[in-house]
Design brief:
about 425 residues, mainly alpha, single chain
Length: about 425
């Protein structure tokens, strides 16, 4: 296999270099296909297992006291699994290892991650399956690279390909998922151009395989109201949502730091159980405090909730995510951020009835996610495909504004430019 000579440290990687490297080299074709197929199987199996666990222990008709007991038991189980199998890492560590090593450093972290995340998400933790699924599929890409004895450069490509497949399976949007996987590594947009085509191939294969096995993925995840005819005013509202979403993202980053500080003196062994108690307490206040919100979106978009009820839903979900994150429960905050944005868009529409509710919901969901994850293209395409491609212009306006306004804020601390030179630009 022909290898390209490495660049000296600190050499600027130009956009022209990136375009020249976006082709899928023949030597990587087979590994990329294997990662796509394996990622599709892993994703389908993981989501099937998650549905079963959710049916067993998830919030539903169960009384708040019973669900609280389950949350505490899950917290204890997280600590026991960590004690027996070791730490499971997180997406932030994976992002750092992709930059430094090319892929996941310790594949053994997947062993505790899978049972822990299934319990956390299934029991009703306020974060979604996206982070564990992407960690698992990305680690599978690293493993395949190791079997083919690839160098760090090609290992990075396969790890990103696995991550793209994981996002694609979950969101049902291959193009947006591939771009999301590439953007989430950096603070200022996509930079590993050479992984673009492999990521697209892996995302498409994983998506197609998951659809073939489950029949899910071709229809939008959320049934939002019809968009209707867009106007120049809608674009201005997209910009406004960008500003509001940026403010929400800054608040989320501050709350996450505050949450970590608040639990810094709590012993790690009991922290997940404490998190379970707090989540149960929040559930007594509002059912919106639990789950990642994907299945709760319908109750938001139907328009049956009042301004007060929507405000409670937003605050409850926000608090639930912070407690879940601070309590070291496993999960991702992308889907909950989408939920908060959709609820916020509906709230604005009730306050200003002349606005287009769907434009507001999509634009605010994108802006909030971009402000936290720095993924303008990926977030725009993922949400737009789930809600309607006609909304791309207004969603993209919100994304760009949110990215600019939150440039100095970050939640995923390991996001950075691919070289020191680019970091200083």
């Amino acid at each position: 296999m022909t290898q390209t000579s490495p660049r000296p440290h600190g050499t600027r990687w130009t956009f022209r270099d990136g375009l020249e490297s976006t082709r899928l080299r023949a030597g990587l074709a087979l590994p990329v296909i294997i990662v796509g197929v394996g990622g599709g199987l892993i994703g389908a199996a993981y989501l099937a297992a998650l549905r079963l666990v959710t049916e067993w222990i998830g919030p539903g008709s169960r009384a708040a006291l019973g669900q609280t007991a389950i949350m505490v038991a899950v917290g204890i189980a997280i600590a026991l699994i960590t004690r027996l199998l070791g730490d499971s890492g997180n997406v932030e560590l994976l992002v750092d290892n992709i930059h430094v090593l090319g892929g996941a450093e310790d594949l053994r972290q997947i062993r505790p991650l899978i049972p822990q995340s299934l319990l956390c998400v299934g029991a009703g933790g306020a974060m979604g399956p996206e982070a564990p699924l992407v960690q698992t599929s990305g680690a599978f890409g690293t493993w395949v690279a190791g079997r083919f004895r690839l160098d760090a450069h090609d290992m990075r490509v396969l790890t990103i390909t696995g991550m793209a497949g994981g996002f694609s399976i979950l969101f049902g949007a291959p193009l947006g998922a591939a771009l999301f996987a590439l953007e989430i590594l950096h603070k200022r947009g996509l930079q590993y151009y050479e992984a673009l085509v492999p990521a697209l191939v892996g995302a498409l294969i994983g998506f197609a395989l998951n659809f073939g096995l489950t029949g899910l993925g071709l229809e939008p995840v959320w049934k939002l109201p019809a968009v209707g005819e867009l106007t120049g005013g809608d674009l201005l509202w997209g910009v406004a949502c960008g500003v509001i979403g940026a403010g929400g993202a800054l608040l989320f980053a501050a709350a996450a730091r505050l949450g970590n500080w608040a639990v810094s003196r709590v012993p790690v062994a009991v922290l997940p159980a404490v998190g379970g108690v707090l989540l149960g307490a929040l559930y007594w206040w509002s059912p919106f405090a639990l789950t990642n919100g994907e299945m709760q979106v319908e109750s938001i978009v139907t328009g049956g909730l009042t301004v007060g009820a929507l405000a409670v839903a937003i605050v409850a979900k926000f608090a639930g995510v912070i407690v879940t994150l601070s309590g070291r429960w496993k999960g991702g905050f992308i889907i909950p951020l989408f939920f908060i944005g959709i609820a916020g868009g509906q709230l604005i529409h009730l306050l200003v009835p002349s606005t287009n509710a769907t434009v507001l919901m999509v634009a605010l969901a994108v802006a909030l996610c971009v402000g936290v994850t720095k993924t303008p293209l990926g977030s725009t395409l993922v949400v737009a495909q789930m809600a309607g491609l006609a909304l791309v212009p207004t969603a993209l306006a919100a994304a760009v504004i949110a990215l600019v306004l939150t440039n100095r804020s970050t939640v995923i601390e390991s996001q950075r430019a691919r070289t020191a030179t680019e970091e200083k630009r």
